Amino acid sequence: MKVLVANLGSTSFKYRLFDLPSETQLARGGIDRIGQSPSACFVEINGRREESTQSIADHAAAVQICLDQLTHPEYGCIKSVSEVAAIGFKAVFAGNLSGVRIVDDALLAKMEDLSDIAPAHNPMYAKAMRQLRAAFPQIPLVAALETAFHDTIPPENKLYAIPLEWSEEYEIKRWGFHGASHRFLNTRIAQLLGNNDLRVITCHLGGSNSLCAARAGKSQATSMGMSPQTGLLQNNRVGDFDVFSLPILLRKTGKTLAQILEDLSTKAGLLGVSGLSQDARDVEEAAAKGNARAKLALDVFISSIRQYLGAYLTVLGGADVIIFSGGIGENSQVVRSGVCRNMGWAGIVLDEAKNFSLARGSEACLSTAASKTQIWVVPTNEEIVVARQTAEALKTKAEG
């Protein structure tokens, strides 16, 4: 079974084609600047990379380019579009319509209704899915919701202290996100250590950030809440924030609520504190050169990770493993070192020599022999999780 996994941006489309159940990656590609001219396209198949530029109007046209690449007579890896069993999406939020679902009108309507919770994700996914259903009705679309992995979180860790009917009627609760990544990391570490009954704290740190506490591969708590704007500070999103500050901001700035929310989701986080960049690499480099605001942003970021890490040690009664992943978690020695600093009292001791010599993209254990908790770097693979879930959804539909 061949499954195409789509990762959508507002003006981008990235994909991977997998052959299941072997989980062989047959191709990967991407298209940038959709709706602009020219759009940039690339595809990698069998070690060969092809690049081109052309005008691409929307995501449906981008998928057609992708399918043309995959079936190219010279370098393609499939003979016909009919070989693609489904397109799987790492969709973000649909409230109570969580889990893995065949895309239908009800799901799309729910995603659109909740767009203000995930404004950077839901609108583009819903729009693209509608385009693709019209353009390729023969190919099933499957949405693997980011919240699905966190469906196992118990009520005491999922509910806000609000009138209970708000949770029940309006679906206001800590939904959590980055589910595909946290799921992959828990599955992978169980394979590496040959143990399915681990207490694991996963740190997905990249453009957006979250921690998750899991026991035996099941989520028990996670830092993101009702929206992806909460929890740890993000690249340009605020993270945890006291809503009772809003009246002051509205009064002092003269801005509308919509404008303030826009600022909190696009001008805050690392960008807001540093005043320099939303890219952690830029912030880290500037801090090393003595930029005080950049160092402050880095310190606030590391402190927020440590606070959630400490909370999740309490949730799990300690941890067998801590995993760093995502672009920052996998590549920033400074962040890993800062998070693990002076944690020996909790049995967490990082081997600094291993930490600072780790090669980019490596999978490795970085804790000392004396550390009671293993500290790992594990590159995440959200796409293979979505591919697996898509195949399972098709199987369930066929059997149902």
Number of helices in the DSSP assignment: 15
Q: Major sheet: size, sense and barrel closure? A: 8 strands, mixed
Question: SSE order, as H and E?
Answer: EEEEEHEEHHEHHHEEEHHHHHEHHHEEH
Class derived from helix and strand content? alpha/beta
CATH superfamily of the largest domain: ATPase, nucleotide binding domain
Q: Rounded to an integer, what's the Rg over CA atoms?
A: 21 Å
Instruction: Write the CATH fold name of the largest domain.
Output: Nucleotidyltransferase, domain 5
Strand order across the biggest sheet?
Answer: 5-4-3-2-1-6-8-7
Write the layout of secondary structure elements.
Elements: E1 2-9, E2 12-19, E3 24-32, E4 39-45, E5 48-54, H1 59-70, E6 84-89, E7 100-102, H2 105-113, H3 122-135, E8 141-144, H4 155-158, H5 164-170, H6 179-193, E9 199-205, E10 209-215, E11 218-222, H7 246-253, H8 257-266, H9 269-274, H10 280-288, H11 292-316, E12 321-325, H12 326-331, H13 333-340, H14 352-357, E13 364-365, E14 374-377, H15 382-399
Parallel strand pairs: 1-6, 6-8, 9-12, 12-14
Antiparallel strand pairs: 1-2, 2-3, 3-4, 4-5, 7-8, 9-10, 10-11, 13-14
Helix pairs in contact: 2-3, 6-15, 10-11, 11-13
Explain this structure.
- The chain has 400 residues and is of the alpha/beta class.
- The protein has two domains: 144 residues, ATPase, nucleotide binding domain (Nucleotidyltransferase, domain 5, 2-Layer Sandwich), CATH 3.30.420; 204 residues, ATPase, nucleotide binding domain (Nucleotidyltransferase, domain 5, 2-Layer Sandwich), CATH 3.30.420.40.
- The protein is 39% helix and 20% strand.
- The protein contains 15 helices and 14 strands.
- The strands form two sheets. Strands 5-4-3-2-1-6-8-7 form an eight-stranded mixed β-sheet, with helices on both faces. A six-stranded mixed β-sheet has the order 11-10-9-12-14-13, with helices on both faces.
- β9 and β10 form a beta hairpin.
- α6 crosses α15 and α10 crosses α11.
- The radius of gyration is 21 Å and the shape is globular.
- 42% of the residues are buried.
- The mean pLDDT is 95.
